């Protein structure tokens, strides 16, 4: 699978190129150009050549690209590139939408970013070692693979450690619960939501439920006493 990080240098170059171009215009706006300079066009490297791209992939030589001709790693964005929805991609569509020519991104790509984009090998190696050590801890059976239950266990361990750290910092009177007076930051801001049983305190269990709730779903409502 192609990695999206190969596009990052191009995007960075684009940003630098645009910035540099604006500065050049400002600096030379009032400066007259010589006859020699006027006859020459500034030669800037082309970041994307639509003609070349079509020539490389247009197998039937009809001047446009069908979905089958588009490299497989880009086909997930074919509909976005095909602006007029005629089932083929023209040179003009490529020039306007070339930013869609990147492989589908995955969360795991951050590892490749660290490896390929680092300007400090020692620092990068240190960060990768942290990731490597953590993944080895997740792999409880040592088979070189991370199973779903191992991932779940690792997540629960992380959440429990963070909840314990919050309580150690906020539960100043050590009574096993956090009052409004003790609450700080996000706990204070969302105190009423965290206090699901409405007893005026946030317990460890209430904070743990909030920390393990799925995104977009609130923690389950406590059962009302009859």
Shape: elongated
Share in helix: 40-55%
Strand content: under 5%
Helix count equals 11
Q: Please identify the structural class as seen in this structure.
A: mainly alpha
Indicate the low-confidence ranges by residue numbers: 1-29, 218-226
Strand order of the largest sheet: 1-2
Query: What is the CATH C level class of one domain, in words?
Result: Mainly Alpha
CATH architecture of one domain: Orthogonal Bundle
Q: What's the mean pLDDT score?
A: 80
The main β sheet shows up as: 2 strands, antiparallel
Number of strands: 2
Q: What's the order of the H and E elements?
A: HHHHHHHHEHHEH
Walk me through this protein's architecture.
This protein is mainly α. Among the domains are: 1-13 and 46-116, Recoverin, domain 1 (Orthogonal Bundle), CATH 1.10.238; 146-212, Recoverin, domain 1 (Orthogonal Bundle), CATH 1.10.238. The chain has helices at residues 8-28, 35-38, 50-57, 78-81, 91-97, 109-117, 121-138, 148-170, 185-189, 191-194, 204-212, and strands spanning 177-179, 201-203. It has a two-stranded antiparallel sheet. Helix 8 packs across helix 11. The longest helix is centred in the C-terminal third of the chain and has 23 residues, at 148-170. It is elongated and about 75 Å long. Residues 1-29 and 218-226 have low confidence and may be disordered.
